[in-house]
Amino acid sequence: MTDVATGAVPLARVLRGGIVESVHLGHVVVLAPDGEVRLALGEPDVTVLARSSLKPLQAVGMLRHGLRVDDRALALACASHNAEPEHVAGVRALLADAGLTERDLDNTPDWPLDPDAAFAWRAAGHDRAPVTQNCSGKHAAMLATCVAAGWPTAGYRGEDHPLQRALRAAVAELTGVAVERTTIDGCGAPLFSTTLVGLARAFARLARAPHDEGHAGTPEARVAAAMAAHPWLVAGAGRDATRFMQAVPGLVAKDGADGVYAAGLPDGGAVALKVLDGSARPRAAVLAAALVAAGVDRGAVGPVGATPVLGHGEPVGSVEPAF
């Protein structure tokens, strides 16, 4: 297992007033449509905890084991959402369709990610809640999968629960990498290790899954179609994951905590990255540069990746990719 610090290289420089103020190190891998490595910075085989970037892979596993939802609910299953009102309503509807309520959720209670939504939630007298935590769509879908498969909903987060065994197998199969370590994610669900190139390989598989009539129902194609059709549900207002998918037709992109991002293109190209210090600050700039290396038009993704450095609320510099 390659340690994440081994072989890390500069991915982005933070410029303030023309001076390099900070440098973010990490790893990037870009796959060509044929699966060959087109660009590797750092160690493409580094072992990572892909955090929420694993959600689309877990959603494939849920569909394989009986989850039956429409594309909006499936996008929420893949989401790290803002908990804006439509997100929360969608999670509640997903639960209700399975005969469940938000009391069945066992993810970590939290405030909405969106500042306006958080203010409104608190103003209404609410405390931190599982339904407003950004992973509530995934947890609702996990519970609905248990109902569909005839598995107990109690204890669904347990590593040895049949649901989690099934999702671990799906992650290993889609990435082509054995899961060497399992730990606990911030939301309380099991978190499976993989490699950066394995993560890119899985996103390529999702994004290029055939969408003709004969393949439209495959789990991979369904996840890709749901995310591409409903990017706002995957993240929310102002979020770069939403904006990247809106900018590039057919792109499947998912951010993850601690500096992870993965994206797949309909032609089979793919990108995965890990920022060594776990910062979210350079992720959008680095992903935009990596997508350009994968063949995406710079004019489409450049504005999404643009990350200003502010002084007194005004741009005085920028985060610039190092490649």
Automatic annotation (TrEMBL):
| Protein name in UniProt | L-asparaginase II
The scientific name of the source species is Cellulomonas gilvus (strain ATCC 13127 / NRRL B-14078)
Species lineage, top-down? Answer: Bacteria, Bacillati, Actinomycetota, Actinomycetes, Micrococcales
